[in-house]
């Protein structure tokens, strides 16, 4: 029976990893988990992660909606995020749950989100991001055009803004 649970957990986890387009190394950086841990989970060597906090970190990094997170948690032998047993055990878990709920809380009723996968880190465009974000979130909506030579970071900046500003666009984010 343990191998059946292990297979199910690893299959579900691998599906979400594939959908995210992140490598295990990128997920390790995003989640703060050792790469070997993620690899062992994905390979089916672990049927139930020791700490649900680690699984929560990975669910946040994979940007799973509540349905996907519940499937992942239940396949690992944990209860769903809506279960009262999922109350935080410590401050870090509370912060993770709050971040996850803030990021995904409106996900069930929001529109489509088609942005490219977000990179694990974002550097050298903070000033430009701080200029553009208020244009997109305050008052009247505006059209913002990013232009420049190839490789300058336009797509990365646009993806970063799409993920960061997603709550401001409940009708969805489309990527062309």
Give the tags.
single chain; 176 residues; mainly alpha; 53% helix
Structural account:
With 176 residues, the chain is mostly helical. Helix content is 53%, strand content 0%. It is built from eight helices and no strands. It has helices spanning 2-20, 24-31, 35-43, 52-62, 66-75, 91-104, 126-137, 154-164. Helix 1 packs antiparallel against helix 5 (66-75), helix 2 (24-31) crosses helix 4 and helix 4 (52-62) packs parallel to helix 6 (91-104). The longest helix has 19 residues, at 2-20. The radius of gyration is 18 Å and the shape is globular. The model is unreliable at 1-6 and 103-109 (pLDDT under 50).
How do you describe this structure in short?
This protein is mostly helical and 176 residues long. The protein is built from 8 helices and no strands.
Mean pLDDT: 79
Q: What would the principal axes of the Cα set say about the shape? A: globular
Q: How much helix is in the residues?
A: 40-55%
Largest sheet: none
- Output the number of helix runs: 8
Give the class from helix and strand content and strand pairing: mainly alpha
Radius of gyration: 18 Å
Compute the number of strand runs.
0
Strand fraction equals under 5%
Query: What distance separates the N and C termini?
Result: 45 Å
H/E topology pattern: HHHHHHHH
> Spans with pLDDT under 50 lasting ≥5 residues?
1-6, 103-109
Secondary structure layout plus pairing:
Elements: H1 2-20, H2 24-31, H3 35-43, H4 52-62, H5 66-75, H6 91-104, H7 126-137, H8 154-164
């Amino acid at each position: 029976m343990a191998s059946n649970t292990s297979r199910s957990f690893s299959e579900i986890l691998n599906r979400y990893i594939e959908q995210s387009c992140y490598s295990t190394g990128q997920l390790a950086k995003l989640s703060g988990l050792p790469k070997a841990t993620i690899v062992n989970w994905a390979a089916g060597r672990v049927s139930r992660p020791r700490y649900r906090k680690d699984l929560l970190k990975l669910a946040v990094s994979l940007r799973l909606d509540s349905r996907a997170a519940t499937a992942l948690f239940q396949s690992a032998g944990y209860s769903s995020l809506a279960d009262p047993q999922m109350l935080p055990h410590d401050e870090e878990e509370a912060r993770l749950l709050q971040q996850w709920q803030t990021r995904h809380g409106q996900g069930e009723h929001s529109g489509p989100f088609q942005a490219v996968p977000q990179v694990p880190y974002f550097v050298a465009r903070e000033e430009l991001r701080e200029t553009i974000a208020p244009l997109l979130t305050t008052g009247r909506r505006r059209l913002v055009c990013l232009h420049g030579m190839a490789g300058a970071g336009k797509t990365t900046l646009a993806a970063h803004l799409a993920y960061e500003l997603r709550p401001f666009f409940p009708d969805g984010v489309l990527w062309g």
